[in-house]
Structure formats: C-alpha cells, structure tokens
Write a structure and sequence with these properties.
Structural class: alpha/beta
Number of strands: 7
Largest sheet: 5 strands, parallel
Number of helices: 21
Radius of gyration: 26 Å
Order of helices and strands: EEEHEHEHEEHHHHHHHHHHHHHHHHHH
Oligomer: single chain
C-alpha cells in the first residue's frame, strides 16, 4: 500500500550558519537529512522526498505540484534561505493543514515567525554525530504528528478561504479603508520631511499627538512610522519618551528595542544601551545592526575615557564592529567604522585591516547606490571610505560628484571634519597631501 508523501524543504550540502556560538560555523545538511530527518519521517509512516534527490533541480511547475499534492511538507528554517520561506508561503496558501516548521535550537529566523508553532531540535556540530541524530530523530517522531494537523495561517485568519464567496466581504472593505487611512498618514509624515528645518520638530510632535496620546490604540505600522519620524526630526529625548509610552506588544518588538537602545545612548547612557542590546541579542539573536550599535556605544565610551579604560573600550568597539561586518557584508555601517579604530589601535597588521575594512564598506555602499536605495548615508560613507583606503583618485572623482549633486546630498557639513581626520591619519606623505587637497576643494563647496 502506498505511503503518504512527505516533501522536505531544506538546504543541501554543507552551508555556513552565520550564527554565533554555540552554533557550529557550518552544517552538513546532507548528513542531517540522511542520519536524522529521513529515518524519522519513515518511522512516522511517510515516504520522504527531498528536492535535491532529483537528477536536476526542480523546475517551478514540479515544485508547485509537490508542495500542493504532498500529504505533508516539512520545512527546515535553520539557516536564512529565501527559497525555503517562499515554499512555506506557497504551502500555507495552498493547503489547510500539513506544513511543519523545524529548525535547530540556536537558529534565528529571517523575520518574525514566532506566532507560528515550530519544532526545535539540538544541532551542536557540523557533522551530525550518532548521538545528535538520535536526539533529532526522537524530537521529530514526538513532535511532527501534532504539528502536522495544525491549520495554516491563511485558513486560520480568513474564514471561508479559499472560496471567495465564503470570505466575509466586509473584511475587504475594512482593509481597504485602513490602507487609505495609512496612505494619508504617510503623506503627512512625508510633508514633515519637506517642511522648513526650523518647523520640523514641532510638526513631528504635532503628528505624534494627533495619532497617539499615550492611551489610544496604535497599530504597529503607524507606531513605527512615528518612531522614525521622531528620531529624525524631534530629537532623542522625545524618541525615548515616545517609546516608553508604547504598549508592550509594540515596545518589545526587536526593531523598537534597537531604536530605544540607540536613543538612550544618544542621550548619554551608553552602559544601559549596551546592556539592553546584549539582552536583545541573547533573546532574539545577533545581527549586523545590533553588533554595530554595540560597537558604536563602545566607540563613544572610548572617545571620552582615559587610560587604561580607553584601550578596553577601543578593543570592545573593534570586536563588535568586526562581528557586525562578518554577519552581513552588505551592511556598511559596521565595516565603515573600523578603519579609523584600527589606525587608532595601531597594532601590527592594523593598517592592512583598515584598508580591507574600507574596501568592504566601499563595495557595500556602491551596491546600495547601484540598487537605487533611498539610504541617505550611502554617498557620504562611500566618500569617507575612499579617504580611509587612501584612494586619492576615487576621492577626487567623488569630489566631482559632490560638486555636481550638491554638498547637502553628501552631508558634507557633517562629514568634512571626519574626512580631514582620515587624511591626517594617512602615513604616506604623497597620499596624505592628495587627500588634504581634496578636503580643501570640498571645503569650498559648503
């Protein structure tokens, strides 16, 4: 008698985890499949099928058919993999039941899926040992049956789905009304950004008072827009006060907690910000932004401290910026802060490290610009990294762009002193002279 089919969605071969210890640096997913997952599914009575068992990669039609017709889909979320998330979404929309999410106990999701039930298993090493395989096998055999019968989020949320005639039409009207109101709110936020500088703070505070009094209900989308607005236009004290007033479900969101730590630090409380960020990473995992924020707080402490504490803070700043850079090479914030810190430390090899970090940051900035990102700091950071890498030719070319596009777009008033500092740190006399000449030209553009 044919057994029910279980289609396994997971990476294959050996992949980097990009996770902090105690997670292993890599995981052999073939070993995980062969020694633990496949035997467990067979014991549960399924015929396990994995995409990479085919002679060639699945084309989209075959993948869709397997996701729809399989009796069970098990998806492994141990490492960030966009394909896995995409296939989960298809299964959730296509079938009412039969989608089980699993992952290693140390993994961090690409986005918040904590509201969905998951099965966690131990995975302490790259090559799955017999002992670990036995523990994973036991966890799957015990946990999969209950999760397999759970309803998917689309069917839980939309009563009557997927039959359009059975879905409550009033919900569609309510969603459309909400989106129209949200669009009007976003237009008001945009108007603040285009108002004269001297009136932006008051306009931002007025918009906060209009949409949130501290007691009225607040949807997360509006709350986050107001947070960004207050951070950019109303100052750090107003930002801290606003976050303190938010209801817990919004205030405790990871992105809100990150901004709170940054705001607290900007008001001078660096130790409290570091402690809060470390706790956030313990709960929700590390990211390039979180490591970079901690690095920034230690950098601020380093600048104001005396020896011997000054050297300790410098070491900590470099350590966290390095971690942030390694977690995401496309995030230029951690890497862009490293060159001048390396040169300030001045250990053997630090000059080479400074140039390497500047190159990484330059590539990340250029990628952001090539993708036509709205990131306002990509241009000024790109210019700073040309200085930090000692590339006079690129600095001169970017100087021409500043002349063409205007000093404001390149935040020259804010960054020129940093560029002068970078030029002063350059050891080669000819390179230093070239960068100082570029600084002199940039000064005339203000």
């Amino acid at each position: 008698m044919p057994r029910p089919i279980c289609f396994m969605v997971m990476p294959f071969s050996t992949k980097e985890t990009r996770a902090k210890p105690p997670a292993p640096a890599k995981v052999n997913f073939n070993s995980l499949w062969e020694k633990a997952i496949s035997p467990a599914l067979e014991e549960l009575g399924y015929q396990p099928v994995r995409a990479d068992q085919d002679l060639g990669a699945l084309i989209i039609q075959e993948m869709l058919e397997r996701l729809y017709f399989s009796d069970l889909v098990v998806a492994d979320l141990t490492i960030p993999n966009g394909n896995v998330y995409y296939e989960i979404g298809i299964r959730h929309a296509a079938r009412k039941q039969g989608c089980v999410l699993i992952s290693a106990d140390w993994s961090n999701a690409l986005f918040d899926i904590d509201q969905m039930r998951q099965l966690r298993y131990p995975l302490p090493e790259e090559e799955v040992s017999d002992e670990t395989a036995a523990k994973i096998h036991a966890a799957l055999v015990q946990g999969v049956p209950a999760l397999a019968n759970g309803e998917g989020p689309m069917f839980q949320t939309l009563q009557g789905y997927p039959d359009e005639k059975l879905v409550d039409p009033s919900r569609a009207s309510a969603i459309k009304d909400y989106l129209q109101q949200l669009s009007a709110f976003q237009a008001e936020v945009g108007a603040v950004a285009h108002a004269p500088n001297e009136s932006r703070r008051q306009l931002a505070l007025a918009l906060r008072d209009k949409y949130y009094s501290g007691h009225t209900p607040l949807v997360p989308a509006v709350a986050l827009e107001l947070l960004d607005l207050l951070r950019d236009q109303a100052g750090w004290e107003a930002t801290v006060s606003y976050i303190d007033s938010l209801p817990d479900p919004i205030r405790l969101l990871p992105t809100v907690r990150e901004q709170y730590c940054l705001a607290k630090s900007k008001t001078g409380d660096h130790p409290a910000a570091i402690g809060a960020l470390e706790e956030l990473m313990r709960i929700s995992g590390a990211s390039s932004e979180r490591e970079g924020l901690i690095g920034g707080r230690f950098k601020s402490l380093y600048r104001s401290a005396a020896e011997p504490q000054k050297s300790t803070y410098l070491t900590e700043a470099i350590k966290h910026y390095e971690r942030g850079m390694k977690l995401d090479l496309n995030d230029y914030y951690p890497s862009s802060n490293l060159p001048r810190l390396y040169r300030a430390r001045a250990r053997v090899g630090d000059e080479d490290r400074a140039r390497a970090a500047a190159t990484v940051a330059r590539m990340a900035c250029q990628r952001s610009l090539d993708r036509q990102s709205s990131d306002e700091w990509a241009r000024p950071t790109l210019l700073g990294m040309a200085f930090d890498s000692g590339d006079v030719t690129t600095a001169e070319q970017l100087c021409d762009q500043v002349r063409d596009e205007g000093a404001a777009l390149w935040k020259l008033e804010t960054t020129l002193n940093d560029l002068k500092q970078s030029a002063a740190q350059t050891k080669d006399p000819a390179t230093r002279a070239g960068l100082e000449a570029v600084c002199a030209t940039l000064a005339t553009l203000l």
